[in-house]
Amino acid sequence: MDPLARLAAHEVSSAQLTEAREHLAKYGFTKLSFIVPEELKEAVAAEVLNLVGEAGVRRDLRFAATGNTLRRMRNVRRDEVVERSTVIPAVYESEALLALLSKVAGEAVLPCPYEPEQYVITRLEESGDTHGWHWDDYAFALVWIIECPAVEHGGFVQCVPGTTWNKENPEIHRAFLAGPTYSASFVPGDLYLMRTDTTLHRVYPITGGVRTIINMGYAATTDLDRHISHETMDALWAESAPAAPHIR
To answer: Cβ-count burial of 115 within 10 angstroms (0-12 exposed, 13-18 middle, 19+ buried)?
Structure first.
């Protein structure tokens, strides 16, 4: 059976969805490895690994809008994914997947209206690579773990839920005092959903191994009615790596 057909036929229990929704509400993220069939995970992983090898661009940036936190990684932009893959765009737009994500979120989960943030592949591959502390412009991110180092080599996720982003004055350190910081490790084949607009989060710097993921960004209904600037994401996902190390 086609992987997308398997997604439409995939059965998920109401108990699993309820547990995931409660975890998301408390911690700002929840593991969702059960939400798609293994065949689809394998199809997505194959496309991701091919794309990151063919079209990945190295980045080494800091952003004032997130307190000059560091981004060191290789990534593949949405446009390259669209041009070179078939499964990933179809999965992103899957009504079956959106319906399940909406049940976990407790509200409508919608395709991101700003196309560059719909999906992006990132790889941490050198010692010190990290996706530093930040918030996202839109409400939700579904992250597929394709490769991940052992936890002793970093690459795990940390987050502070219930926080807000002021791009003019991010006050990252004050956000740490707003509540506890949670950490979570994942393995290849895992997926997790995060409330990214109100959860300060990062990927702990790696010291070995490789962490490869595809991030699928989604909007809440409220995102459609507010002005959102995209200066940091435009710089991070630029066609070529910017020369200047500090981007506001």
So the answer is: exposed
